[in-house]
Amino acid sequence: MNIDKKILEKQGYRFTGDHSSVKICSWTKNSLQDKGECYKKKFYGIKTHRCAQMTPSMICPNRCVFCWRDLDYYTAEKMDKIDDPKEIIKNTIEQQRKLLSGMKGNKNINLKKFHEAQDPNQFAISLTGEPTIYPRLNELLIEIHKLNATSFLVTNGMFPDALKSLEELPTQVYLSLDAPTKEMYRATDNPLIKDFWERLNKSLRIISELKTRTVIRITAVKGINMSNEKEYADLIKIANPNWVEIKSYSFIGESRARLVQENVPTFNECKIFAENIGKFLGMKIIDTHERSKAILLAKEETKDRLLNK
Q1: Cα separation of 271 and 285, whole Å?
Q2: Domains in the chain and their CATH numbers?
Q3: What are phi and psi for residue 160, nearest 5 degrees?
Q4: What b/e readout covers 7-20, taking b as 16+ CB neighbours within 10 angstroms?
Q5: What is the per-residue pLDDT across 289-305, written as a single tens digit (0 to 9) for each?
Q6: In this predicted model, what pLDDT tens digit does every residue of 237-273 receive, in sequence order?
Q7: Average pLDDT score, the chain
Q8: Can you tell me the distance from the alpha carbon of 246 to that of 295, in angstroms, rounded to the nearest whole number?
Q9: Largest Cα–Cα distance of the chain, in whole Å?
Q10: pLDDT tens digits for 34-76?
Q11: Does the model's pTM come out above 0.70?
């Protein structure tokens, strides 16, 4: 594992331990200036300006072609040192406040939101890396929930046993499904782990058993993984999630060295792709966020979709 902290700090990251970090999301900045809200606000009701985008793990065993990071760095199957979960959360809040402090002088800032943002009540465990590598994830979730905050955990499914062993469940679990077949997954995610397909399928089965809100998320990359809708649906049926998200790939970071602008689908292309998958699942589009090119599928609308935290 190779991490250049100075480079990451220049990019806006702040370390909350040896292998954990936080970064202010662009949507949080937008929300504080009343310039728009994250799709998670529209889809699930979380407050964008009170969301902490963080991770307990900077490393990941996959080398996805659409990933923003430099794949020569941060790629591994396990971590060396283990940060204390209490320190991670304490430092996440402290660093979040420091990162936000410079915005107070902005004439466009919504001061009410700014003051509320000092105490995040939503933790998106999705900043970078694979959080289920972190062996004290259960304790981390406990610390988050002690704050009466919600937690959204995003996993690539490469560590199903870690997912299954969670006793403190996240408010919402996302499983990333980047390809519909083993061959396409190998080409798209380029995993280090040899039994990646078996692990992914095991995670899909575990997702179906979790007593919490569940989402299957597909990052749509034009010309790469926007096909084989029936095969996607067959995998999604195993997980039986509450919702399916289709969201466009963003042409950012180091992914620009591997892909081209033409790999970014339009909102309409994402919508058609989502509709085609939905037909095989008996799901329909229940919401969209056009600026993020995000589509939400479900079998039916439910009253509890919006958390209203």
Answers
A1: 8
A2: 5-298 (3.20.20.70)
A3: -60, -35
A4: ebeeeebbbbbebb
A5: 999 999 999 999 999 99
A6: 999 999 999 999 998 878 788 989 999 999 999 999 9
A7: 93
A8: 5
A9: 53
A10: 999 999 999 999 999 999 999 999 889 999 988 877 666 666 6
A11: yes
Find, among 63, 56, 124, the residue nearest to 91 by Cα: 56
Spell out the residues 6+ positions from residue 94 whose beta carbon is closer than 8 angstroms to its own. Answer: none
Structure tokens at 65: 């072609």
Tell me the residue type at 59: I
- The helix/strand count (H/E) of the chain reads as 11, 10
Angle between helices 196-209 and 182-189 (to 10 degrees): 100
Residues 6+ apart with CB under 8 A from 7: none
Residue 39 to residue 250: CA distance in whole angstroms: 14
Task: Round to the nearest angstrom and report the end-to-end CA distance of the chain.
Answer: 37
